[in-house]
User: What shape does this take?
Amino acid sequence: MNLTHFLFETDADGIALVTWDMPGRSMNVITLEVMEELSQIVERVASDEAIKGCVVTSGKDAFSGGADLTMLQGLGALYEKLAREKGEEEEAMRVFFEESRKLSLLYRRLETCGKPFAAAIHGVCLGGAFELALACHYRVVSDADATRVGLPEIKVGLFPGAGGTQRVARLMQTGDALQMLFKGDQIRPLMARNMGLVHEVAPRDEIVEKAKAWIRAGGSPKAPWDQEKFKAPSGKVYSPAGMMIWPPANAIYRRETHDNYPAAKAILQAVYEGLQLPMDLALRVESRYFAKILRSKEAAAMIRTLFISMGELNKGARRPKAVGPTNIRTVGVVGAGFMGAGIAYVSANAGMQVILVDRDQESAEKGKAYSHKLISDQIMKGRAKTADRDALLSRITATADYAALKDCDLVIEAVFEDPQVKAEVIAKVEAAVRSDCIFASNTSTLPISGLAKASQRPDQFIGIHFFSPVEKMMLVEIIMGQQTGEKALATALDYVRAIKKTPIVVNDSRGFFANRCVMNYVREGHLMLMEGVPPAMIENVAKMAGMPVGPLSLNDEVAIDLGLKILKATKAQLGPEAVDPKQEALLVAMVEKEGRLGRKNKKGFYDYPENGPKRLWPGLADLQTTRLDPDAIDIEELKQRFLATQALEAARTVEEGVVTDPREADVGSILGFGFAPFTGGVLSYIDFMGAKAFVALCERLRAKHGDRFQPNKLLLDMAARGGRFYEAAEARAAA
Assistant: This one.
């Protein structure tokens, strides 16, 4: 055998040990070359009588993250190429189908080769790698906290296509298997054993020996489903028990996805049909659905944005290459309120020293207490230890003394959204810190260039906009002011990478990128309400369109009075024509007449009772001068309004030079405000629809609902020439 990615050795008992260790990579991934070598190994084990069985393990700190999705992305390009060259879609589809199921056939060959295979797993083992483990006859995982198994393909618009749907559904109760496949969660060792996904949990240094011991003890080379009397855990599909599963499963699927995710539907179909068939036919059914989903626009969009683009941004795609690595040891956070306390926590959790400053010691300590609460919650869930809490809290110094910032490499202010207040903080910080310290503002709307006027070092001044709650939201928006230098940008990007969040870099403007799109979404909900659309319909249709929460609920979370304050400031600066009078009237009525500020005072578009779930405020009906008949409302048009208004604003940010890379708009829109993930993000939504079709949609909405849907010049030009936001990137990929 000619192996590059695996080490192959046999011991005195005739047990082969295959160690997966790809050179030049920090993580093993499944590529065409890996598949070819694994095939050689399977055939060697199967044909060599001296080999009693085989253990597969990893030579790295993790087993494997799964398949290289760029390989799967390339299969779509292969189909298009064959269809063009051969002019026969049927032949192109046949080749595509056979190529897309190679991994499934390889794993089935391993499973039926007549020799027992065991997997010894430490670290993450996800996707196609866990499907490899499932094809092995025995699975041992380490008890380390870093070890996780799972099938997360649904999160990038795919589903397990190398046997995962069929093997999981034969190891677990059908309802549990469907839930696992739909969620795509990473599962901890003991839970995986309790679920029946793995056989044994052991210390890391014992997993290989435990796997070998199973083979020495006569481990069976036959999977349970290949044995004559095998019965699925939930029995037959067409049985009283089976019929208790499938109708609810279908209802849950529709409730959770609104039919926006073809991969989720394919999971249902593949499991439902596969459980009625012998394994080989079941795997063929799975492969049929996998090939179909692999060619879907939803999978193409989600793979590009949530795997490829996000991976590139996380690895520093926008980092200035001329600036060397920065070493951020100490971070200052000024303002220990909700945002500042969250920033302090994620910084300390990343191993940095944190100086948390507020106007008095009591306020600073209160901010530090937030970290105590968060890490204590992790301890209660078994995800951290008391020693972890002690270590984290020891890294946070709460103080009212700005002089404590003297050794900081980076200072982030998170004080009240008022230019004068921020200017005072800037002066105090710059008087205390080293001359090379980078200063960042966590403002959500105020232009960075304006705030930097209060700085003595505007080249070291940058915006780092976190989303709330900081510890949960994965996006950070980095804002370049007019004078921001490359060192400040590099430091900000290195910091965001250190706290394990995804950065996007945008240029300065009021509201930057994310908030401009979000405010359009919320405004559309407000205007629908004033048109007479029932509030419950507004909220539900927004979720049907793919948004995580309705616009009224979102407005309650960020505070209605804040929205009114922003609207009034916009009107004062840009004139009355810059705001919608109907939206203004609604917010004035809610805040100034009704005293409804949102969740913070338990009264907003929703009521928030002490005991019980939130519910829409009945008084909303009294604010509607017109009430539309729900049966006469065009649901599809409401969905289009919600998505088009955000995508249109994103296109404007591109035209204005606020966003310069479509990857950042798409990744930012999904991670930052939950824009319908199945579209691939705000610009992919336009690209996959086509600029011409999107402009036509906007014109229809404009004629009916007003000039806020007026397409900008960039879109009109793209529509005229058939352009796309990603055309430059696509041209590079094709070259």
Remarks:
- The mean pLDDT is 94.
